[in-house]
Amino acid sequence: MYREYLAKTTELLREATGLEDVLITDGGDHADVASTAAFALAKQEKKNPALIAKDIVEKISANPKSAGIEVSCKGPYINFVFGADYVAESVAAARKETYGQLPEKTEKVIIEHTSANPNGPLHVGHIRNTVIGDTLVRVFRKAGYPVEAQYYLNDMGRQIAIVAWGVKNLHYEREEGEKGDEFIVRHYVEANKIAKEKPEIEPEFDLMMEKIEAGDEETVKLFHDSVDICAEGIKETLASMNVHHDRFVRETTFLWDGSMAEVLGRIEKMPDTQFDGKMMYLDLSKQGFGNRYVLRRSNGTSVYAARDLAFHLWKNTQCDRSIDVLGADHKLIGSQLQTTLSLIGERPPEIVNFEFVSLPEGSMTTRGGVFITADELIAETKKRALEEVTVRRPELSAEEREKIANAVAVGAVRYDIVKVSAEKSTVFDWKEALDFERQSAPYAQYAHARACSILEKAKEEGGFAECYEFSDSYEIALAKHIAQFPYVIEKVVVELRPHLLATYVRDLADLFNSFYRFDPVLKAEGKVRDARLTLVDACRNTLHQALDVLGIEALESM
RNA sequence: GGACAUGUAGCCAAGUCAGGAUAUGGCAUCAGCCUCCUAAGCUGAAGAUCUAGGGUUCGAAUCCCUACAUGUCCGCCA
What we know:
By secondary structure, the protein is of the alpha/beta class. Helix content is 55%, strand content 11%.
């Protein structure tokens, strides 16, 4: 109901002040929402802002449309407190299974994320992309958009040539139970090592790149087999994190179907396109870029940037809105891509950038074999979770404990990543990753499990009647936060900042835990008991829906 | 050298885009709470002149300028 009441308040303020922007802010401790419009009017009318605020409050109070909203002022601040109807309606809405789902839209969205080179396992840097991307996919779906999640699979670049060279020349045996990505990365690391020691093999990589470009059958098979083995392992990792892509798009597609040549043909005619033999680049200095945006090599072969242009043109034919999740190292090339697409009159993608994750000893590199894999991180977190659940719930079967530990581990990993805003670079810290206290997924999962447990017991005791009469401050604070969930979904979609959702869930769990501590539910009597049980159910469902959107399992018991 | 991002308590973050009320949390520290719905919990204490210096404003963590620090990028790699 928050969105509705916010709109209503805005309307009331507009009518009372004549302002278009009514300067609504969060009310903090004072109110549900507040307005600082009196300051703005004070300047215009050269009057004391406190007096203006008083006038506005009187005007709004006299307006019959303000029923259910208590308006007051404290000095120049105009405060709005939403009343009992708001609380009741909000709690009722939150009990519906689809709570938070916004009206269906027709605008189709493609979100591309992860898209790591298939030369090794996903590491803790890559999965920041994955978690941000998958959370966005889930939020957009919750917000009513048809969404396709895509993984752009590099199946022909230099890194892949190095992998393919390794597969062709090293003849490694795949170990029993070894994942495809683990198997492939051994080749990649070793081939890089050899290339460093013997630079004379470099031309072999170049030759392979020329061959794949030309569509040489044997080379294509070698590349694609290597990529597929690795991708199979990557998919397993993604699945273990509750991440699913609707489509894997191969980079070679755009080379072979002629679409890359077509877009290069369009760019050839642009005034700022420069040539140096066969080599072609775009001079983007007018747009503020200092370097050459190379689109064709002097030997005539294609570059990543050119294939990427074709890929994005294709995506544009498939959707109304295209969003890419890219790491800090792709910032420059991302904005060059956007600029170039705009120059040729095409819609550029929206780009969500995130900063790097490094290790305390420095940055991670697949090439150097310096990284913590996502699999290791999850396994380690799961081990820790299993210890914890074994101590807490010794009576549970091994199977149940395993299931809980897994959900806790995946949740903890995802939450730790999504809770930090994307523009912040971070240093991976085991201690923090394995901390299951307050600002973590298990904290929210635990609140959910507590709510489930209360409802389960209530059921055993004969159930309860719906009741929406709340008077206690813990009840009202919780209900009012529950009311904001759809607003948060909308905000994340508009701002493309999934960490807001993590903050929301944490606050919701906080409020529930305080309520749990101070307001006995099952021991209360009559209407109070009914109302509290109704509220617990609303909170349970809101936590469940919010955790779903974060890709975290809402455990019923832990 | 240039571009982009970041700088908030011992540590890690929120708040910054759309300037307003005593700057919000967590970890660590200290003091409490399990005869009471799961203590992965709750309560309290202590801890910040929001990197520094200018400016705009009635009002700045938030906007502008400068400096410093950190990260990333600046390849006929992806």
